[in-house]
Amino acid sequence: MTDRARQHQILAAARVLLEQEGPDALTMRRLAGRLGITAPSLYKHFPDKSSVVDALADAMLAETAEALEAAETAAPGSFPALAAAYRAHALAHPHLYRLTTSRPHSRHLEERAAAPLFRALLPDEATARAAWAFAHGMVMMELNDRFPTPEAVTTAWTAGITALTPTSL
Question: What DSSP assignment string belongs to 50-88?
């Protein structure tokens, strides 16, 4: 197996472990056990756990960009469609979403993920940034079960999207 193929295998196993059991389960020892290797063998491919986490977060940002790009293609310029795609993708990967949004990243990856939102809401960059913050904050509140009912989540999403959607759309 090539080094690149082994890295992909390690990341795939790390992702499954993270998504199934949460961030506390993601240790080099547990990861090695899933792969049937010793923990020191992982260090040939990743210098430490942080580098595994960084690679997982980079993958999540790329996937978020792809989800938003697909929503943009399906509904050009639609902030509601972008917000729905963002939310759906984040809620489908809650542990990976939390891990990704809690650390700094490559500016290029963040810009790619945010680009459809900025295209939908430009030339008003401030509104685009507010919309990004709204979507992130709402997802975090939903993941952390901060709403009294599912209806309250829907009502809050609808109110925020309505407030942030340009009236010309």
Answer: HHHHHHHHHHHHHHHHHHHHHHHHHSTT-HHHHHHHHHH
CB of 128 closer than 8 Å to CB of 110: no
Domain count, the chain: 2
DSSP class of 23: G
* Segments forming the whole domain that contains residue 128: 48-164
Residue type for position 32: A
Which residue, of 47, 67, 85, is where some domain finishes?
A: 47
Q: Say if CB 147 and CB 156 are below 8 A apart.
A: yes
Q: Mark whether 114 and 126 lie in a shared domain.
A: yes
What is the reported pLDDT for 169?
43
Distance CA 128, CA 82 (A): 12
CA angle 140, 22, 62 (to 5 degrees): 65
**Does 153 lie in the same domain as 70?**
yes
Question: 116 near 69, Cβ under 8 Å?
Answer: yes
pLDDT digits (tens, 9 = 90+) for 107-146: 898 889 889 988 887 667 888 889 999 999 999 999 999 9
- Strands, DSSP E only, in 31-82? none
Q: In the block, which residue shows the tokens 């090695």?
A: 32
CATH number for the domain that contains residue 57:
1.10.357.10
